[in-house]
Design a protein that fits this description.
The complex is a heterodimer. By secondary structure, chain A is mostly beta strands. Chain A has no helices and 11 strands. Chain B has no helices and 11 strands. Chain B starts with a strand and ends with a strand. The chains are: A mainly beta, B mainly beta. Chains A and B meet through strand 4, strand 5, strand 9 and strand 10 of A and strand 4, strand 5, strand 9 and strand 10 of B.
């Protein structure tokens, strides 16, 4: 079964540093997403991406966040200047569209120290 | 936005018991999925079930879209069923908004 692949699985970074989280969505999917889950809390929507541009973003997705699809396969989330409160699990997801469900990656656990 | 309420928030059962997890949502939905978050944090898709009933082994799910709820049934629980179960919905025309998750049901199966 096709998978959404995320790298790295874990990342520890110093406060103020930039991080890039990487995702390879399923190849024939059209919609791409980033979600965040702070430890012990629910999964929250960050941003959606369709047709090479942002479709929607939540209030969490402020100016320190950006997304890119630099080539035909990768989908990245960049956090420009990390804060302690950015520590969370970040999930990438993709969806084919229509009546198909969402497929989630295994997540990247980001720890900001 | 759409609200998703899951109950119970916590559930402790003995191995072999059956359980029912509930998800209520506040508006019509295009998509509803149940996920199991395992101890490593991975979200495992259990069911894509915007309406009707589906079964997969010891798990089954029913969504009554007209009454805005879904149920996840786990029969003959095993310790490996422990974890957090999330319900997530997508509103009609809401592909751009993605899924809205409930807060989850934390299930502990004791041997």
């Amino acid at each position: 079964e096709p998978e959404v692949t995320q790298t790295p699985s874990h990342q520890v970074t110093q406060m103020g540093q930039e991080v890039i989280l990487r995702c390879v969505p399923i190849s024939n999917h059209l919609y791409f997403y980033w979600y965040r889950q702070i430890l012990g809390q629910k999964v929250e929507f960050l941003v959606s991406f369709y047709n090479n541009e942002i479709s929607e973003k939540s209030e969490i997705f402020d100016d320190q966040f950006s997304v890119e699809r630099p080539d035909g396969s990768n989908f990245t989330l960049k956090i420009r200047s990390t804060k302690l409160e950015d520590s969370a699990m970040y999930f990438c997801a993709s969806m084919r569209g229509g009546i198909y469900g969402y497929t989630f990656g295994s997540g990247t656990r980001l720890t900001v120290v | 936005g759409i609200q998703v309420e899951q109950s119970p928030p916590d559930l402790i059962l003995q191995e072999g018991a059956n359980s029912t997890l509930r998800c209520n949502f506040s508006d019509s939905v295009n998509n509803l999925q149940w996920f199991h978050q395992n101890p490593w944090g991975q979200l495992i898709n259990l069911f894509y079930i915007p309406s009707g009933t589906k079964q997969n082994g010891r798990l089954s799910a029913t969504t009554v879209a007209t009454e805005r709820y879904s149920l996840l049934y786990i029969s003959s629980s095993q310790t490996t069923d422990s974890g957090v179960y999330f319900c997530a919905v997508e509103r009609p025309g809401g592909g751009a908004d993605g899924l809205t998750f409930g807060k989850g049901t934390h299930l502990i199966i004791q041997p």
